[in-house]
Specification:
The protein has 740 residues and is α/β, with parallel strands linked by helices. Strand 3 and strand 4 (128-134) form a beta hairpin. Helix 7 (249-257) packs across helix 8, helix 10 packs parallel to helix 11 (351-364) and helix 20 (643-654) packs antiparallel against helix 21 (658-669). The structure holds adenosine-5'-diphosphate (ADP) and magnesium ion (MG). Residues 297-300, 333, 335, 338-339, 463 line the site of magnesium ion (MG).
Length: 740
């Protein structure tokens, strides 16, 4: 019945929620199984709800609520337990309190110093308390008279009144007469009503900030939405629910919006959390299965002349971890299923050597290989290094950047060039290959999914190797790269002395400079990284120029070079080449040298204002040194003021192992902003916390993958419901997730 695994789309936007809002993308030809029909009400547009017309739908749209399902999954940000609310009559000054009352007065005044004071007073039947703001008139918009509001903060007694300055507040409800203000009235479609007591209860849900949609209105709509989906089937197979002891879905949704008590709410939230994690893993498993099923990849032969010649030419033995990774890659490439593998290894662990073998394996069989780097500097460096490594071997290496002449493009298109090194320019229209057999994507997290997909599309299901020097905690890789195979190189080639990291403050500058002088005197080279200036590249460039001037004064007679983001790429490249050739002793740079630069003779690094950098970035930077057989030293000038910054500086000094550091980063910051997750197209995880939920993720993952193993397109029985839900949630994002 089903055309292709996991292919249903939830594009239904019609008001008629019984026939049109079913998935329409690739509808199975037969009738939709009855349980899905009822489920599909989740995909109905919000306008299917009584009282919601087009105008109100637009407001909901600003909250990213488009469908009935979106509304039901628009969860409260937090909950307020009324038993933790202090009656205003009994608050004490100095107390950190939460009070709930009705806004009874809103007033603004100007002070003598021409500040604007906004005073909003609450009354709760036991007394009055005011929230006070300076120059923040905009709070008026939400805090209108008659609105039920919670204030939290430190209570003061001043000017004969109880007050909280800058309270954090939540608008709980606009009162029942709020229809007009809610915007549902003018549509003339609101039939009023909703169950009794939906605005009361001991535990009060607080919703995320709203664009002209009050919590009261939301609750009313949610209540109607629950009625609409009432009796719908559960999206999870019974067996899974039993294994994990989960509350039924509709019950959980009701409980989350209208909590009955702490215990049931806890169970409901666990159910929602589980669904998010489990269904995402199901989506990843479906993707992986589909790729495997579609096949169409290239069965590369065993390593031939080129790979053999290359290996013999290396001046060193491959490490054990390099050999293991290469074995996994060669095996993947020999299969007809296109490879989709992530090669993860510390900076300097020798990924390039492994990747080159993959490129050559393709060429050995008459195909081409391409490697894409995130910057021009890196592409040039790869080109030089790989070109150098392959000298004497019968393969042509080409460079492809924005400035590549048409002749060279022709040689790539004709297949004369076997190994192509390039930037984003590789994926431009007009660039074509003869037989692209393998694609290597260096520093893969710097590319968007679309770019990676586009490059792969230049061949016919080529093998794809993603490379990353950013150590990713195991937890993250399970979710982020859930359908990738992963090879980890967690050992550096022998003979590396490593990097000693010192966090210093400005008073120790003299000592640091003396150290730099010493290294340079010994014929070694030094990086000086200038502060990160977030506002503009221009300011950053200026800071770098200033630093260059200062160092020129400190170190007369030495060659000092400068690179920054404002320079032409041609000039940047020339400086980097001179540094690589040892003609520059001290290189002042902005962060753009962050990735991939390989200068084994560089043994020292100074980073200015290091506390402005993230841990991953500092680790990358530090990886630029200690690549030779000399001990290297990295001095981080920092003046951390926040706890978080202090913790970061402590961690970077303590750990030189990237994985340990990544775990520390996860602990310090939570996963929110880690490693540019958003950019890599990870479906939004709203509830899951990777650091906290590791065990659950692992367990849910194994159950999800086993389920999909048994039923690869989820077409059997109640599994159909699960597939429908996986598509509703992640269809849009997973489509791009490592599509290959
Ligand atoms: P990555 O790309 O992982 O940062 P590279 O491939 O650039 O690392 O390797 C870093 C340096 O280590 C290079 O100079 C490379 O020639 C050298 N190298 C790679 N593998 C080995 C090895 N097995 N033994 C010794 N040196 C190696
Ligand atoms: Mg293959």
């Amino acid at each position: 019945v089903i055309r292709k695994g996991g292919d249903w789309k939830t594009t239904g936007r019609s008001k008629d929620n019984t026939s049109q809002d079913k998935p329409t993308g690739a509808r199975p030809s037969g009738p939709v199984p009855p349980p899905v029909e009822k489920l599909s009400r989740l995909a109905a547009p919000v306008t299917a709800l009584p009282g919601v017309g087009p105008a109100y739908a637009r407001r909901l749209d600003q909250l990213d609520i488009k469908t009935v399902g979106d509304l039901l999954y628009h969860f409260p940000r937090r909950y307020l337990d009324r038993s933790n609310v202090t009656p205003i009559g009994s608050v004490k000054t100095g107390q950190d309190a939460t009070v709930v009352g009705t806004v009874c007065d809103v007033e603004s005044r100007r002070t003598r110093s021409r500040k604007n004071i906004l005073v909003v007073s609450l009354f709760d039947g036991t007394g009055y308390l005011s929230g006070v703001w300076f120059n923040q008139e905009y709070h008026r918009e939400q805090l209108k008279e008659g609105v039920e509001t919670a204030f939290s903060g430190k209570v003061q007694f001043q000017y004969k009144r109880l007050q909280i300055v800058n309270p954090s507040y939540d608008v709980l409800g606009g009162g029942e007469e709020g229809e007009g203000q809610d915007g549902m009235g003018p549509e003339g479609e609101d039939q009023g009503g909703g169950p009794q007591g939906i605005h009361t209860g001991r535990i009060i849900p607080l919703y995320p900030g709203t664009a002209g949609v009050t919590s009261a209105a939301l609750r009313k709509l949610v209540s109607r939405a629950l009625d609409m989906v009432g009796g719908m089937a559960d999206v999870l197979p019974e067996e899974v629910r039993r294994t994990f002891g989960l509350m039924p879905l509709t019950e959980a949704l009701r409980e989350i919006h209208f909590p009955g008590g702490e215990e049931t709410l806890g169970k409901a939230r666990y159910r929602a959390l589980f669904d998010e994690i489990f269904i995402m893993q199901v989506g990843l498993a479906l993707r992986k299965k589909r790729r495997e099923r579609e096949g169409g990849g290239i069965s590369h032969g065993p390593p031939g002349e080129l790979v053999g010649g290359f290996r013999r030419s290396l001046p060193f033995e491959l490490t054990v971890v390099q050999e293991k990774a290469w074995g996994e890659i060669a095996r993947d490439m020999s299969l007809a299923v296109p490879m989709n593998r992530l090669l993860q290894g510390e900076v300097g662990s020798g990924k390039t050597v492994v990747a080159v073998q993959a490129l050559l394996l393709a060429v050995d069989g008459g195909y081409q290989g391409a490697i894409m780097a995130p910057t021009e500097i890196l592409a040039h460096q790869h080109y030089r290094r790989i070109g150098g490594m392959l000298e004497g071997l019968p393969v042509r290496v080409g460079l492809l950047t924005a400035g590549t002449p048409a002749d060279d493009l022709r040689d790539i298109a004709s297949g004369d060039v076997g190994v192509v090194v390039g930037t984003h320019a590789l994926i431009q229209e007009g660039v074509s290959f003869d037989r692209l057999g393998v694609v290597v994507i260096d520093e893969q997290h710097r590319f968007g999914l679309r770019q990676r997909v586009t490059l792969a599309a230049k061949g016919s299901a080529p093998d794809v190797l993603h490379m990353s020097a950013t150590p990713i905690p195991r937890t993250l890789s399970l979710t982020l790269y859930g359908d990738l195979d992963v090879s980890v190189m967690d050992e550096l080639p022998a003979g590396r002395k490593g990097v000693v990291t010192v966090v210093a403050d400005k008073s120790q500058r003299k000592g640091a400079f003396a150290m730099v002088g010493e290294e340079v005197r010994l014929g070694r080279q030094v990086f000086v990284i200038c502060p990160l200036v977030e506002e503009s590249e221009k300011l950053e460039a200026r800071a770098a120029e200033k630093e260059a001037g200062r160092l020129a004064g400190e170190f007369p007679g030495y060659d000092i070079g400068l690179v920054h983001g404002q320079m032409k790429s041609e000039d940047k490249r020339r400086v980097m080449e001179r540094f690589g050739a040892g003609e520059i002793d001290i290189l002042i740079s902005t962060v753009m040298v962050e990735v991939g630069i390989d200068v084994p003779n560089a043994t020292a690094m100074i980073v200015e204002d290091a506390d402005r950098f993230g841990l991953a970035q500092l680790h990358q930077l530090r990886g630029r040194i200690g690549r030779g057989s000399e001990r290297a030293i990295c001095v981080l000038f920092a003046n951390p003021t926040t706890d978080e910054a202090k913790a970061r500086m402590e961690a970077i000094q303590r750990y030189d192992d990237g994985f340990a550091l990544a775990e520390a980063d996860l602990r310090i910051r939570g996963e929110g902003s880690l490693f540019g997750i958003r950019q890599s197209g990870l479906p939004d995880l709203k509830l899951a916390r990777l650091s906290r939920d590791f065990k659950l993720i692992r367990d849910a993952r194994s159950v999800a993958f086993r389920l999909v193993d048994r039923d690869p397109v989820l077409s059997e029985g109640e599994n159909v419901l699960l597939r429908w839900e996986a598509n509703r949630r992640f269809g849009g994002t997973l489509e791009w997730l490592f599509h290959g």
